[in-house]
Give the backbone structure.
Amino acid sequence: MRPIQSVRWSPDLHSVRIIDQRLLPTDFVERDLRSLEDVCDAIRTLAVRGAPVIGICGAMGLVMSLAWRPHTSPSALLKLARENALSISSTRPTAVNLSWALDRVIARADRTTGEVDAVIAAMWEEATAILEEDRAMCQRIGEAGVNLLREGVRVLTHCNAGALATGGIGTALAPIYVAASRGQSVCVLATETRPLLQGSRLTAWELTRAGIPVTVITDGAAAARMRAGEVDLCIVGADRVVANGDVANKVGTYALAVLARHHGIPFYVAMPASTIDPSLASGDQIPIEERDPREVSSLGERRVVAESAAVGNAAFDVTPAELITAFITDRGLVYPPYAF
């Protein structure tokens, strides 16, 4: 079975090819992003989503938005690059990987001398390196976390932090994939993850595709499963980790961490170093994206909320560091006290 490649260069190298995750699990469709507008729309509408992969897509999309257009000088190119990077970064403000990857490509352009073609080639090389490094980082996360998983372990995860969300085998799902590759039995409980069902649509799709047993549960069923002794540990991903170890992740993560603490269940966060934002002291400073209310008020074309009711749709919440057992990172396991 072909490994999942959630983002890559198109064969003609003139666009960024993604899996359109809005259409899963029923339809597997790959899209080519050929313009700045395509890239911004794909990230904003969650055609491509997951903190590491939107960073990769943003970096590659930035290069692609410049590569096949005439530029009068390197300085004009850099001016447009910064403008395009700002447009891309504004699409998803919570996940720090996006701004991190864009900043890295811009920095590479800034220190490259020569004509326009040389600057673009250097940016292209940097974006490609970000993709390749992410694949390697995912594997290291998996190897760092696999020893937490005994034979027959039952893992609860939230949202999707697997191959669809990264350039490799994932963050939260990476230890599970590594365990499975070694012949170890692992069972996964995946919360459906309202309102856009990334758990039921995406995590269940990629795990069943890999032959790993997975059971989808409603978000509200997690407490009962824990109380019944059906969860051995929780592993989730992260969109931003700040200096004191507080974590922004898909809304609902905080509730699961509280439940895990109450039931004495270890709660792990898996993430690469690129997700760390040491510039913020605590989770209170993390910008939380508020998304379109229609994601909550409608199921497909059908409205399911009374017309006169207000709707809140914060896409993320913040889990305090004291609720996290350890971080599973590409640099190994990190236990408290946290100081990033």
